Amino acid sequence: MGLNLAQKIIKDHLVTGDMTPGSDISIRIDQTLTQDSTGTMAYLQFEAIGIDRVKTKKSVAYIDHNTIQSGFENADDHKYIQTVASKYGIYFSKPGNGICHQVQLERFGVPGMTLLGSDSHTPTGGGLGMLAIGAGGLDVAVAMGGGAYHITMPKVCKVNLVGKLNPWISAKDIILEVLKVLTVKGGVGKVIEYAGEGVKTLTVPERATITNMGAELGATTSIFPSDEITKEFLKAQGRESDWTEIKPDADAVYDEEITVNLSALVPMAAQPHSPDRVDSVTNIGKIKVDQVAIGSCTNSSYLDMMKVASILKGKTIHPEVSLVIAPGSKQVLTMLAKNGALADMVAAGARILESACGPCIGMGQAPKTDAVSLRTFNRNFEGRSGTKSAQVYLVSPEVAAVSALTGVLTDPREFGDAPQIEMPKEFLINDNMVIAPAEDGSKVEVVRGPNIKPFPVNVPLSDVVSGKTLIKVEDNITTDHIMPSNAKLLPFRSNVPYLASFCLTPCDPDFPERAKANNGGFIIGGVNYGQGSSREHAALAPLYLGVKGVIAKSFARIHMANLINSGILPMTFVNEADYDSIDVMDELKIENAIEQVKKSNIIKVKNVTKNSEFDVEINLSDRQREIMLAGGLLNYTKNN
Ligand code: MIC
Ligand code: SF4
Question: If DSSP codes are grouped into helix, strand and coil, which group holds residue 258?
Answer without folding.
Answer: strand
